[in-house]
Amino acid sequence: MLFVTATLLAQQRSVTGKIIDQATGSPLSGATVNVKGTNRSVSVNATGDFSVTVSSPNDVLVVSYVGYTTQEVVAGNQSSITVSLVNAAGNMNEVVVVGYGNVRKKDLTGAVAALSNEDIVKRGTTSPLAAIQGQVAGVTITSNTGLPGSDLNINIRGANSLVGSRPLFVVDGVMIDNINFLNPNDIERIDILKDASSTAIYGSRGSNGVVIVTTRSGKKGKASLQYSGFVGLRTIANMPDFLNVDEAIEFTMNRGIMRSIYTNQPIQAPDDLYGFPSSGAAHDYWVKVIKDRNFYDWIGEEMKPSVQQNHFISASGGNDKLTYLVGAGYQGDDGNVRGQSYKKYNFKANFNGNISEKWSTGANINIAYSDRELRGANLMQQLFRMPPYAPAYDSAGAMIRQPMTGISGNVSPLAVQKYNKDNTQEYYLVSNFHLQFKPQDWLFLKSTFSPTLQMSRYGIYRDELETGSNNVGSMATTNNFSYVWDNQAHITKSVGDHRFDYDFINSLLMFRSEYLYGYGNGLPFNSEFYNLGSANQFNVGSNYQKNTLLSFTNRLNYAFMDKYLVTATARWDGSSKLAPGHKWAFFPSVGLAWQMSDENFLQSAKNISLLKLRTSFGYTGNDNIDPYQTQLTVDRQTYYDWNGRIANGFRPSALSNQGLTWERTREWNLGLDFGFFNNRITGELNLYDKMSLNLLMQRKLAVPTGWANMLDNVGSVSNRGVELQFRTVNVSTRDFKWETGFNFAYNKNKIVELYGKKEDDVANRWFIGQPVDVVYALEFDGIWQKHEVPAGNTTLEGTARVKDLDKKWRDRPGRYEGAWFSHAKMDRRIQYKPNLQELGPLCKFVYSTRSIPV
Questions:
Q1: CB 325 within 8 Å of CB 218
Q2: Pairing of strands 210-215, 168-171
Q3: Where are the beta strands (DSSP E) in 235-387?
Q4: What are phi and psi of 766, to 5 degrees?
Q5: Radius of gyration (Cα) for the chain, nearest Å?
Q6: For 809-817, which contacts have Cβ atoms below 8 Å and span 24 or more sequence positions?
Q7: Greatest extent of the chain over all pairs of C-alpha atoms, in Å
Q8: For residue 117, how many other CB atoms are within 10 A of its CB?
């Protein structure tokens, strides 16, 4: 036993060293040095020196300091180590993911924004997109609803298309339609590609920008167990100031009195209940409710703060031969309305191994399951509509089906909340498997196969208590399967001051979707949506789609003296969705950058840490339409007279277009990256101009053709804008750091052409020279006063008045004549133009306590 102890002691030794700032060489007093996987940790002294005990040459030293990039150094057989830390803001050697590879931030020629795991998890949210909201200039993330588990809308540099402008998501190299299934705690970093130079590597799929997500993976070192999580409350912001019970009763009674005045009726009501039913059972109902004050606080009782939680635990480790990580997570949100909930479970596994010196392999698997229960999609709206004097229960404690008896037929939200179902379950499997061969240091060949499976089930059940007649149910299931097979050759060479990186990529995408729908009316009992065949009436439907995309890509990165940079990309895409002869398109791009701060004439400017000028130009595309649009599909049932007998048949549902081809987006970008005062102030400025051509949209056809419209390439949209993003380090000491971040973006979006000419489409609210999404409505012109109402007009005093903009229906300036409210020709105008304007200040405070050696 004494011999074993002596052996262990002999293996332990001290490693000394110094921690300095890479830019200035000054010691970083207070930095922390930790032996990875142990609790051995020391603090650097005032001169930057440290001493720590290691037990093996394989021990890894983790060196960290507030505001600097953490480094890991293998102890080896060294007795003294000097580590230079890089300011996190000015680390130009930071690696940025740009699609099918990585580049140093210093070598970027395009507009790319990067967010770290710290940036993502600090928000404390269950949604990856919500975690990055407001952190990147030019990236707008919005929500149309506060329902638990709802997806968010993301837009990068404005709306490029009339058929959707959602960017491409790439998770660990796998292209998918959204990232809501991921756990934010499992995300290592997110890189957002914004301009044509950076997105061109994805060709037709990158026209709306690309969001690249890298999840956590195993790293060399001792086995370790890591947990991250949070529990918090989410409350509703900007809640309307609703009337209380007495105010609501007074308002209803005053409304009834005023109605009698306007209609020249006697002002009288039994039991002085003006505005309430005046006879029968409905009158007796309200007399009793108000007398007994049997009221219900619908908002206060049925709405609440939601409890959000997110937990993720992982185990990782590895050596020179194999690294691994396995993890599992849970996310929950019980909603702001009682009865609503969202639960999500994640599992991930990752490994990378070296088979030999030249062969390596790896796999990454993400599995997610989510369950979302809303009871009713409009449940919150129904609660808002219930006045506080409407009772929920009668004197016996039974739920009242129609609380507004005699006033409206609205069903009690409690009937929806307690008996209805609005449930969505989703299953995701996102994976990739790669094999790499590296015959030379300057060459590798890599093949990656990435299968993805998404299954969803959406079920709705409406109880007879809500419908007032029958139990109704429906269920829709969707099974989507896709795979991407990428084959890549990468060459990197340096010749003197010249550095070349070349990629050739062949990519094949296959997507297949199956859909099944069932509906039942008159279910004999509450079987929710699981026994639709027992209904008195039922209906079924199904659908199938399949499409493929074949791509060939060349990309060259060239650097001269690390100051003059060029990125050139050429991609050919062929889509099965488009017409024969129009399936293939070519998408080129080029990006240039000049590292001005490395020039001799700026070396004397000590306050300039970084100054880089960038410009890029390129084309991307879009085939964002359903398959089979170029084929005349016979899919609509009809009946024929077949010699006096009824015969079943089918006819086309739409006219095909044999000339359908790609949308194309042309983009210029001019950018400036800057850093001043040893990178205490850093940021970037981008100016861009995008024009989308040959937009895919429904084109109106002449009546004699027999068809109302046809899908065609007939429009164009412009986006021009500016983005400014900068960060300042106001205070940086040993234990405390104060940073300020600021984002500003402005985007001017307008429709340039529709249907091949300068013609507005009022029905779709598309107007030449205006943004894609506008609010087109009547214009408010005040409140009708009693003396202003024309004689014989039934318009009520106190109601809204709108402008007659075309001056066709007025009896005097600014007023409508006659039955103005019902007139179909009353005109409208654009009331809101959603040109993007963002202003996003952010302050960050970091406090780090010194570790005390024990």
A1: yes
A2: parallel
A3: 306-318, 322-333, 341-354, 359-373
A4: -115, 125
A5: 33
A6: 814/781, 815/788, 815/790, 817/790, 817/793
A7: 113
A8: 18
Report yes or no: 327 and 216 within 8 Å, Cβ to Cβ: yes
Separation CA 108–CA 591 (nearest Å): 9
Q: What is the pLDDT of residue 666?
A: 92
Q: DSSP 3-state assignment of 34?
A: strand
The pLDDT value recorded for residue 220 is: 78
Distance of CA 518 to the CA centre of its chain: 30
Tokens encoding 409: 């037929």
Could you tell me the pLDDT band of residue 3, with boundaries at 50, 70 and 90?
A: very low
Q: Is the dihedral of CA 809, 813, 818, 821 positive or negative?
A: positive
Q: CB–CB of 668/619 below 8 Å? A: no
Question: Would you call 704 exposed, middle or buried from its count of C-beta atoms within 10 A (0-12, 13-18, 19+)?
Answer: exposed
Residue 369: partners with Cβ closer than 8 Å, 6 or more residues away: 344, 345, 425, 426, 427, 428
Range of weakest confidence among 5-14, 420-429, 649-658, 686-695: 5-14
Q: What are phi and psi for residue 252, nearest 5 degrees?
A: -65, -40
pLDDT of residue 823: 41
Closest listed residue to residue 464, CA positions, set 533, 560, 528: 528
How far apart are alpha carbons 406 and 124 in whole angstroms?
47
Measured torsion, CA atoms of residues 465, 466, 471, 475, in degrees rounded to the nearest 10: -140
**Tokens encoding 707:** 């068809």
Residue pair 340/147 in contact (Cβ under 8 Å)? The answer is: yes
Cα 429 to Cα 452: distance, rounded to the nearest angstrom: 6
Q: Could you give phi then psi for residue 172, rounded to 5 degrees?
A: 50, 40
Is residue 486 a contact partner of residue 550, using CB atoms and an 8 Å limit? no
Place of tokens 């929500």: 143
Using alpha carbons, select from 193, 183, 223 the residue that is nearest to residue 36.
Answer: 223
pLDDT of residue 2: 38
Mean of pLDDT over the chain: 84
H helices of 200-326, in order, are: 245-262, 280-292, 298-302
Average pLDDT score over residue span 147-163: 83
**How many other CB atoms are there within 10 angstroms of residue 307's CB atom?**
13
Cβ atoms within 10 Å of 268's Cβ, excluding its own: 10
For residue 675, what is the enclosing H or E element?
A: strand 663-676
Measure the CA angle with vertex 90, ends 86 and 91; round to 5°.
55
In 3D space, the residue among 168, 167, 201, 211 whose CA is nearest the CA of residue 618 turns out to be 201
Q: Give the DSSP per-residue string, 431-496.
A: EEEEEEEEEETTEEEEEEEEEEEEEEEEEEEE-HHHHSS-EEEEEEEEEEEEEEEEEEEEEEEEET
By C-alpha distance, which of 555, 428, 556, 449 is closest to 509? Answer: 449
pLDDT score at 613: 95
Q: Compute CA 478 distance to the chain's CA centroid, rounded to the nearest angstrom.
A: 21
What's this model's pTM, rounded to 2 decimal places?
0.82
* pLDDT(55) > 70: yes
pLDDT at 283 over 80: yes
Let me know: does 228 contact 121? Beta carbons within 8 Å: yes
Q: How far is CA 837 from the centre of its chain?
A: 18
Element (H, E) at 358: none
Instruction: Please give the structure tokens belonging to residue 522.
Output: 């008159």
Structure letter (DSSP) for residue 339? T
d(CA 614, CA 109): 6
Contacts of 603 (CB under 8 A, 6+ apart): none
**Rounded to whole angstroms, how far apart are CA atoms 787 and 533?**
63
Q: Is 19 exposed, middle or buried (0-12, 13-18, 19+ CB in 10 A)?
A: buried
pLDDT of residue 87: 67
The pLDDT value recorded for residue 813 is: 39
Q: Nearest to residue 669, comparing CAs of 727, 589, 771?
A: 589
Q: Is the pLDDT of residue 106 over 90?
A: no
